[in-house]
Design goal:
332 residues; alpha/beta; Rossmann fold; UDP-galactose 4-epimerase, domain 1; 2 domains; 10 helices; 14 strands; binds UDP-4-deoxy-4-formamido-beta-L-arabinopyranose
């Protein structure tokens, strides 16, 4: 299949592109490189530098002829979304309207959308399955839920079939170090721990240690980005096979606390990782753990690399690889 991956130069997008390529698909990446990196564009894919707010750019690209779109271009910091909702409304919602309209006008029939566990808000029960009520606790989650609602109407009115994949916490790096561009200015926990281990960040701020969890720090369900990416490939295969839209959780079905992640990172990296307990971050839940049972049933998918050791060791290898590259004197 001929796939257009919008946001395919980003941390998750590059891993998704890699897995579609490995599965034999033809991939074109559309990315404005505002947070994605040119070094994440693979030699065996095409690239269009473009913005999701540029409707003409989108439709000119889509008219080249694609079987499906994977849309991962969005701002994703739950914390920042509570401080700058206007930025998230435009980039996460307005741009998706352009994408859906361009897709409908170009006759594209399938879209895989990067949604989020953040649509659930504070859990009423754990593990969270897809029947759980949706009630976002932060503006980022609101934007993802709004797009899911748009997808339902575009399915009904335009015949655009979708798979909305509700990511839990994406982490880790390609086990073969094929994605080399590290997230810039990360807001998520594991890259922040990695930067602290590398010495490029002074300390990890632990946002609250008075939650109702075993060690008081926040617990999340971390899914290895390769597991996440393979879930996208399987989701598209099912969407094309059945022609029926669906919404799924993709999680590692683990529950790792902030302090556990820090301790394990110290052990695996052999580095000191200073941290300081601070106030809770607005919009944070104490504990978010997925049920990915439906993904298992519909996609025959199960996380393989989402254990804490692999999440951290694959990340540490990527950060070390990057540090060694930076350290190597440029050949004169
Ligand atoms: C994880 C835990 C923080 C940073 C993420 C993404 C969002 C969505 C859902 C995909 C929490 C704590 C973090 C730090 C900390 N994923 N933390 N200090 O908020 O669970 O949401 O998953 O759509 O894109 O943001 O992830 O990594 O920000 O936080 O203590 O410097 O780590 O309180 O308990 P979050 P996160």
């Amino acid at each position: 299949m001929n796939i257009l991956i919008i946001g395919g130069a980003g941390y998750i997008g590059a891993h998704v592109a890699r897995e579609f390529l490995d599965a034999g698909h033809k991939v074109t990446v559309y990315d404005n490189l505002s947070s994605g990196l040119a070094q994440n564009i693979f030699d065996d894919e095409d690239f269009v530098e473009g913005d999701t707010m540029d409707f003409i750019g989108l439709i000119d690209t889509m008219r080249r002829g694609f079987d499906a779109i994977v849309h991962l271009a969005a701002f994703k910091s739950a914390g920042e979304s509570m401080l700058r909702p206007e930025k998230y409304a435009v980039n996460n919602i307005n741009s998706t309207v352009h994408i859906l309209n361009a897709a409908a006008e170009s006759g594209i029939k399938y879209i895989i959308f990067s949604s989020s566990a953040a649509v659930y808000g504070n859990p009423q029960y754990i593990p969270i399955d897809e029947k759980h009520p949706v009630n976002p606790a932060n503006f980022y989650g609101f934007t993802k839920l709004e797009v899911e609602r748009l997808l339902g109407w575009y399915d009904k009115l335009k015949g655009l079939r979708y798979a909305a994949l509700r990511y839990f916490n994406a982490a880790g790096y390609d086990l073969n170090l094929r994605v080399t561009g590290l997230e810039q200015n990360p807001a998520n926990l594991l890259p922040i721990i990695m930067e602290t281990a590398c010495g490029t960040r002074k300390e990890v701020l632990v946002f609250g240690c008075d939650y109702d969890t075993p060690d008081g720090s926040g617990v999340r369900d971390y899914i290895h980005v390769t597991d996440l990416a393979r879930g996208h490939v399987a989701a598209l295969e099912r969407l094309i096979k059945t022609g029926t839209s669906f919404t799924l959780n993709l999680g590692g079905e683990n529950g790792i606390s902030v302090l556990e992640m820090i301790d394990a990172a110290k052990r695996i990296s052999g580095r000191d990782i200073p941290y300081r307990i601070t106030d809770r971050r607005p919009g944070d839940a104490a504990k978010l753990i997925a049920s990915s049972e439906k993904a298992g049933e519909l996609l025959d998918w199960k996380a393989q690399y989402s254990d804490m050791e692999t999440l951290i060791s694959s990340s540490w290898k990527a950060y070390l690889n990057n540090a060694e590259k930076d350290a190597k004197p440029a050949l004169s």
